[in-house]
Amino acid sequence: MKSEWRSRFKALPDKDRQRLKYLALGLFLSLLWFWNMAPALKTYREAPLQLAQLELQSQNLKSLQTQALALQKAPRMNAQNASAVLQQTATEILGSSAKLTLEAGRATVNLTPTSADALAQFLATARIKAYALPVEAKLQKTKTADQELWRGTLILSFPTQ
Fold first, then answer.
1. How far is it, in rounded angstroms, from Cα 38 to Cα 45?
2. Can you spell out the DSSP letters for 83-103?
3. Contact 119, 71 (CB under 8 A)
4. Is 121 helix (H, G, I), strand (E, B) or coil?
5. CA distance 116 to 123
6. Phi, psi values for residue 89, rounded to 5°
7. Which of 20, 119, 147, 154 would staple 109 via disulfide (CB 3.0–4.6 Å)?
8. Predicted confidence band at 160 (pLDDT cuts at 50, 70, 90)?
9. Residues 6+ apart with CB under 8 A from 16
10. pLDDT tens digits along 10-66
């Protein structure tokens, strides 16, 4: 079969053989470009952006690691002190928009419409000062003309000794 193709190729006029050679060379170069060169150039162009994103992620992870180490080194607080700190935090930040109920190692916060900023500040402060972590949240978002408000129930757990 190979020899049949060669004989047909040699039987063609010189101009047609030259065109077929150029066509084969063009096909080869196209395949080389699309399979080898184009993906490599795309990776080369996208590398700086990906490196910047990875650097940002690395900085975020280092920040989280620093926070975690600080929390590990912080003195432990018993549940009674933590509940007092949480009560004070709820009163200062959430005011009358929250009702706090304390039970054995847990706190239930019933929220009437509360701003997202106040809720986020309360959760961050509760985590840092009282070492209280949310274990369950049943919240609903409502929108007013100028802001989003949250209402529902939030259950926080206190640290155990």
1. 11
2. HHHHHHHHHHHTGGGEEEEEE
3. no
4. helix
5. 11
6. -65, -45
7. 154
8. low
9. none
10. 888 888 888 888 898 999 988 888 888 888 888 899 999 999 999 999 999 999 999
Distance CA 62, CA 7 (A): 70
For residue 111, which of 124, 96, 125, 126 has the smallest C-alpha distance?
96
83, two tokens: 């509940």
What's the one-letter identity of residue 103? Answer: E
Residues in a beta bridge with 28: none
Residue 92 CB coordination number (10 Å): 11
Say whether pTM exceeds 0.70: no
Of 110, 109, 106, nearest to 79 by C-alpha is 106
Tokens of 73: 């080194």
Q: What type of residue sits at position 20?
A: L
Residue-wise pLDDT tens digits, 69-125:
887 787 777 777 778 888 888 888 888 888 888 887 788 999 998 888 889 998 988
| Check whether domain 79-157 has CATH 3.30.70, yes or no | yes
User: Torsion angle of alpha carbons 45, 48, 54, 56, nearest 10°?
Assistant: -140
> How many helices, marked H, and strands, marked E, lie in the chain?
5, 4
